[in-house]
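user: At home tonight, take the chain set out below, taking as long as you need, and be ready to discuss the fold:
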Amino acid sequence: MMERYQELIRGAASHVLLGTDELPADLLIYPGSFNPLHVGHMHLLRSAEQLCGRHGLLELSIKNVDKPELGLDEIERRLEFIFEPVILTRAPTFIEKAE
């Protein structure tokens, strides 16, 4: 798994999918820094899933428009608390996340 993170950090991969093998066709992306993930995040995700009728997926970007890029140690620290499927990306803006 560490190799996949390194590909993302180097820019050789646009995303890394964790906790599931494929993206659902009816995807709902919930982006956040999840530092740390807490019950409020999960309630918001479940509510959005119910309202939209879609399957939610947490998105953690290692690159942010106004913060330093996350390193390997910080990525792993944040993932320790996430027990849901998550997609790691390099998408700093909402437009890039949507693409």
About this structure: The beta strands are 15-18, 27-31, 55-61, 86-89. Helices lie at 2-10, 39-52, 72-79, 94-98.
